[in-house]
Fold this sequence. Notes:
Order of helices and strands: HHHHHHHH
Shape: globular
Largest sheet: none
Amino acid sequence: xxxxxxxxxxxxxxxxxxxxxxxxxxxxxxxxxxxxxxxxxxxxxxxxxxxxxxxxxxxxxxxxxxxxxxxxxxxxxxxxxxxxxxxxxxxxxxxxxxxxxxxxxxxxxxxxxxxxxxxxxxxxxxxxxxxxxxxxxxxxxxxxxxxxxxxxxxxxxxxxxxxxxxxxxxxxxxxxxxxxxxxxxxxxxxxxxxxxxxxxxxxxxxxxxxxxxxxxxxxxxxxxxxxxxxxxxxxxxxx
Length: 239
């Protein structure tokens, strides 16, 4: 009964990512100021989660070496993926550029949600109350992550609203898969868990540096900076 409940909570936590998408599609065509602040906010969220939560968790669960290895692997993975994905050239439409950015962020969030799901499963094996708390806290910040995925996708005129919600929600459902894995392998190597947290951090920081921050500063740098600060503060509160 306890296992069923933690799976259900993990599922709900994952589905809350879709709430972020629903909030996004309710916003009509955003202004340049809103665009800069939104992309900055997404960057702040990802930076905050990586530096305030994932990296400290990685070091606490494992050690500095497993953290370094995982972080470097995550950044390298996204760098290779960036080379593999079709590049956006100057003569291509901006909506294609934002579509690529949204897909890129979705992959990074999905990678990040796997170790978080594992954390829910492992925490539940240690203590039921700890597992419930972990699922609740992850579910809350999944809403913010949903915003970071859906905002760039919503800027592409070719993207249907239903598809935006679907893509965003799928990234959150990786949490459930991670919980199943964590429950089945409660005594999994702590170094592997440590590396997985750091891997997610490396991937998310790469995305932030390569995509979000440069594009957030294109039109209104001040609004981009306010978004980044707000995102980091929210991450600090949630962590």
